[in-house]
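Quick start: read one record
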Amino acid sequence: MGNSVWKDTWLITIRSVKTTLRNPFSFIPNLMISAFFLLVYEGGLSGISQLPMFEGANYLAFILPVSIVSAAIGGAGGAGQGIVKDIENGFFSRLLLTPASRLAIVLGPIIAGMLQLFIQTLLIIGIAFLLGLEVETGFGGILFVLLIAIGWGLAFAGYSAGVALRTKNAQAAQAGTFIFFPLIFLSTTFVPYELIEAQWLKVAATINPTTYIFESMRTVLIDGWIFWDLMQGVIAIVIACTITITFAAVSAKKAVSRG
């Protein structure tokens, strides 16, 4: 049974990846937007790093997580879009008539979305290095940033898949993903928490899980291996993934029962 699940998941993941590659415009715009964020923010706001609160930190390393998280939100939405397309063209219903694992039917597009995000993140980090990125923790720090990005992408992919299975509508699945973009800006997006002046924005940043994703990435890029600062991002991912993957699993069960 276990081998069957893994085999089915592998086959459906490969199919989802091939489907994405056949339609590059499903992910190229998201990659371009993320790269645009990096270029514009670094070019227009890098002078902020001269403030004493930054302590001479490289603003490029500070703003890089914003570009990566925006890619995670957009890229992970591909999981939901893939499921909706399968529902609309009847492939999802045909899969339900086969012995394929029901878990694999949902996991395949989610894993494909994570792989897409992994490639996007590598490209964004490559652009950052071309712009002069310096990483305090070296290659190990880059690996940690990649793991955080993939974990955050998994959380969004689970949510996207759950919305797609609930609504079976492409527009609803897309809209369900985009509501998370405000989370990027209700956080420590451009300046450290200490420099945020509006009290309401400080409260929003405190309860916003994106803040802890940003801080864990920035810590490993700028400050080094500070255990608790890194673990805050890991904990935020574990909580988010638990909620969204459970949501996707429950939605999948209901979708399968409806046939």
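Residues 2-258 form one domain.
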